[in-house]
Design brief:
This protein has two domains: 152 residues, 60s Ribosomal Protein L30, Chain: A; 190 residues, Phosphoribosyl-aminoimidazole Synthetase, Chain A, domain 2 (Alpha-Beta Complex). Helices cover 30% and strands 26% of the residues. The chain is built from ten helices and 15 strands. The strands form four sheets. It has a seven-stranded mixed beta sheet with strand order 10-12-7-13-11-15-14. The protein has a four-stranded mixed beta sheet with strand order 3-6-4-5, covered by helices on one side. A two-stranded antiparallel sheet has the order 1-2. Helix 3 packs parallel to helix 4. Pfam families: AIRS, AIRS_C. One of its GO terms (molecular function) is ATP binding. It catalyses: 2-formamido-N(1)-(5-O-phospho-beta-D-ribosyl)acetamidine + ATP = 5-amino-1-(5-phospho-beta-D-ribosyl)imidazole + ADP + phosphate + H(+).
Length: 364
């Protein structure tokens, strides 16, 4: 009997090859604050870059991309998953007004395929570069016997910084504030267990073609998650004080996520008629025999980020976002007057926040 790591199914040489393949894309995210390059036991980031802050607060977030990886694995397309991962993590950090500084990733797989791992990390690095985030480290772990040879999962964590006086959140929200919606690029990275269930029930494969989706099903579903961080940071700098709160629409849907950033005692009704959910949502609902409204607690339905802004700044914020390639529109207003809150989402994920309800019918 051979007692070795290789005999147990772990190929350390393949891991080294993966690191070599990803080094250039990772290094491209490094500015002068990053020390030590790629391959150290820990990433180093020079915190003296923060000395001009009066009271710097560090913000951190961690996440994955859920079961969307199953579709990437089925189609053997892996770089888009990296974009999804960065968006899920970094766009949470910008919600408090923070600028992302650096990120690390973790990839668990059944077998290290160097080119595949490098493709995943290349996608992560591309999205990090697009959001001004340094990719300072990561880990690839081989789990033979626990994960199948072609299975993998990804996770990441990032750290950002915000001046204490500039933190966004419920405390800034006021009666009469306007809720601005920002368009999603599609499903983003939430609700894929429902997507997979619908397709399996209808016996539709990821390689099948659906003209309604513009071609191969899996490719439509792998549309990368939109990155809002860079445009939002520009808007915050260009229009100081205009934005009071931000909400990243992820698990739980539009109403629940907005409720998390509204103050207790406030409420907002969002007009479904102010936007038309993209085709992918309509096709999936038709396949399931369900209404768009029935999926509001699962999918973003075309809204990936929400901003609560001062009423006299709404048009300026929309113009600033759209000039940076982010479609945006007024979806509702915040009120603190007495109101019947029957049917409203009130707070979410342990946050005792405001109340939100979607009203009306979606635009066609």
């Amino acid at each position: 009997m051979t007692n070795s790591y290789a005999a147990a199914g772990v190929d350390t040489a393949a891991g080294d090859r993966a690191v070599e393949l990803m080094k250039a894309s990772v290094a491209a995210t490094h500015g002068r604050e990053v020390l030590g390059g790629v391959g150290g036991f820990a990433g180093l980031w020079d915190a003296s870059a923060l000395r001009d802050y009066r009271r710097p607060l560090l913000a951190t977030s961690t996440d994955g991309v859920g079961t969307k990886v199953a579709i990437a694995q089925a189609l053997d397309i892996h770089d888009t998953i990296g974009h999804d991962l960065v968006a899920m993590v970094v766009d949470d950090i910008v919600v408090v007004g923070a600028k992302p500084l650096f990120m690390t990733d973790y990839i668990a797989c059944g077998t290290v395929h160097p080119e595949r791992i490098a493709a995943i990390v290349r996608g992560i690095a591309e999205a990090c570069a697009a959001t001004g985030t340094a990719l300072v480290g990561g880990e690839t772990a081989e789990h033979p016997g626990l994960l199948g040879p072609d299975d993998y999962d990804v996770a990441g964590a990032a750290v950002g910084v915000v001046e204490a006086d500039d933190v966004l959140g419920p405390e800034r929200v006021q009666h009469g504030d306007v809720v601005i919606a920002m368009a999603s690029s599609g499903l983003h990275s939430n609700g894929f267990s429902l997507v997979r269930h619908i397709l399996a029930t209808k016996k539709i494969g990821y390689h099948d073609e659906l003209p309604e989706l513009g071609g191969v099903v899996g490719r439509a579903l792998l549309e990368p998650t939109a990155l809002y961080t860079a445009p939002l940071l520009d808007v915050l700098a260009e229009l100081p004080g205009a934005v009071h709160a931000l909400s990243h629409v992820t698990g739980g849907g539009i109403a629940a996520n907005l409720a998390r950033v509204l103050p207790v005692g406030s409420w907002a009704e969002l007009d479904r008629g102010s936007w038309s959910p993209p085709t992918v949502f309509r096709v999936l609902c038709e396949l399931a025999g369900d209404s768009l409204e029935s999926t509001e607690g699962t999918w973003n339905l075309g809204v990936g980020m929400l901003a609560v802004v001062a009423h006299d700044s709404a048009s300026s914020v929309i113009r600033a976002l759209e000039s940076r390639g982010v479609p945006a529109w007024v979806a509702g207003r915040v009120s603190t007057t007495a109101h019947d809150l029957t049917g409203f989402e009130q707070g979410a994920k342990g946050v005792d926040g405001g109340a939100v309800k979607l009203v009306g019918a979606y635009a066609t």
